[in-house]
Amino acid sequence: MAYSKxxxxxxxxxxxxxxxxxxxxxxxxxxxxxxxxxxxxxxxxTATSPIDVLRSxxxxxxxxxxxxTVWPAYGQAAVQIGQARVQxxxxxxxxxxxxxxxxxxxxxxxxxxxxxxxxxGATITLTDADVADTDRRRRQQExxxxxxxxxxxxxxxxxxxxxxxxxxxxxxxLARWDAGSADRFVARMNATARSLGMxxxxxxxxxxxxxxxxxxxxxxxxxxxxxxxxxxxxSIVATASATLPVxxxxxxxxxxxxxxxFVGVKTGSTAAAGGCFAFRAIRWNHGKRTTITGVVLGQPxxxxxxxAADAMVDRITGHRAAPDPQQPxxxxxxxxxxxxxxxxxxxxxxxxxxxx
Length: 356
Prior knowledge:
By secondary structure, the chain is α+β, with helices and mostly antiparallel strands. It has 10 helices and 11 strands. It has a single domain (71-342), classed as DD-peptidase/beta-lactamase superfamily (Beta-lactamase, 3-Layer(aba) Sandwich). It has a 5-stranded antiparallel beta sheet. It has a two-stranded antiparallel sheet with strand order 3-6.
């Protein structure tokens, strides 16, 4: 028995050493795997992990609160996914909205003077007073389209001038045509805002040029969603360009149109308001059509507003847009819709009030 015990002792020691070595290897492998996962997760701030995609799609489906990473770093933003409730990001406060105010202007005109998709509407004859007002606004470097006394615009053409090149002079024309005076029209704007629950909104002019016209991103999503229910409004803001009797061809200031699922709606930019963008995007998730309506305000420039909206939609849906056969795409050779200050020798648009 003594000999048997001495023979087994080296064997037991070898087995113990092997077990310890195996255990150490397991620990090392686990640490390496954890480190590798952390490195992968932090390797790119712009990459979207499969887990984030699943969580995002789950939130979209259930209408749950969106994570803070969805919202832009600057300004404020809000979105509505499908028909779910409006979701607001941080820093909501009444701020300048620039030409995004024209969404309310167009909505009221179409509410008071409805158009079917095949209708152009009533004719509006421009006057010497309208020309004088346009000249005054041009001197102030507002965004305007050229007009002439006696020129006749259909309601549809006036709305195109309002929403595509963002003409402040036509906002004033439409306000007087609809309500008899700009003051009465502004009163209707504010009454409509109250009826829609836009409690942090105050309109002081029909164009948004006045810095006292203020709102929040969440409030503006409400009117954008309402306006997009009107087929004529939706079709105009989805149009790249239009032709007016005197101004000629005017282009949509929304350079995101037709790209990455964006189908409208309205840009705005002034020194006080920063870059503003009310938008609608349509994305496809696993064969399901998802509509995202949103507003970003107070961005450091219009290009930043476009980028913020694009990033928000990507983060909400968890992926970049795939081509949508139902979405209009600008035809090859369509002139780019540049910032107004990039246009030289063009009298159609000036530099402020929309910018663009």
